[in-house]
Design a protein that fits this description.
The chain has seven helices and seven strands. It has 196 residues and is of the alpha/beta class. Helices cover 40% and strands 18% of the residues. The protein is globular, with a radius of gyration of 17 Å.
């Protein structure tokens, strides 16, 4: 009985660590110089965000794994969902099939909607393998050094995270980890914004 308890404790600790900001990639990113000093030093909320609902979403340019460059400001006028993820994150892998089925497949043909996964500080070949393993078809972009992530949350904070942005560029919802009630609320929020 005692050995089962210890195994459960170890499994929980591993799962938590796998999605925290203490991974080797995040530590390497922390050592790299970055231009986002203000964002990195901003006071965050209890979930690690340095932005809040009502803020204008920080702009960025990102290279998608398909090769094109995506700039957030070019998506103005659309409802935008950003999903911060990484291949080593257990909770991300749990959430991504639901993002695919409940959000992406439902809205991908709607010209007023955009969804981008943003992979935290992993090389393109790793991200391509991750996409293949999870079976998601929504667009995925690269975030070397976690510099895009650091515009939205403390660089050492964990993932998975979703940011919902309205057509005016304002943040309307921020999620952390995968909670079924919060996820359902996010789906409803996207539906509401697209029906306005």
């Amino acid at each position: 009985m005692r050995s089962i308890y210890y195994l459960l404790v170890i499994a929980f600790a591993f799962s938590y660590a796998s999605c925290s900001g203490s991974q080797k990639n995040a530590q390497q990113a922390e050592e790299q110089p970055t231009a986002q000093v203000t964002a990195d030093n901003a006071e965050g909320d209890e979930r690690g965000y340095i932005v809040k609902v009502g803020d204008t979403a920080p702009d960025f340019a990102m290279k998608a794994i398909t090769g094109e460059t995506v700039r957030l400001s070019d998506l103005r006028g659309k409802v935008v969902m950003l999903q911060f993820t990484a291949s080593w994150c257990v909770v991300c892998r749990k959430e991504m099939p639901f993002i695919e089925s409940d959000i992406w497949l439902k809205h991908k043909s709607n010209p007023k909607f955009a969804l981008y996964g943003i992979d935290r500080d992993e090389p393109q070949d790793k991200v391509e393998g991750f996409v293949k393993e999870t079976g998601v078809t929504y667009p995925m972009g690269l975030d070397p050094g976690a510099d895009i992530f650091a515009l939205y949350a403390d660089r050492k904070a964990g993932i998975t995270r979703n940011v919902i942005i309205d057509p005016t560029g304002k943040i309307v919802m921020l999620t952390r980890l995968y909670d079924t009630e919060e996820f359902a609320s996010m789906c409803r929020k996207i539906d509401e914004l697209l029906n306005e």
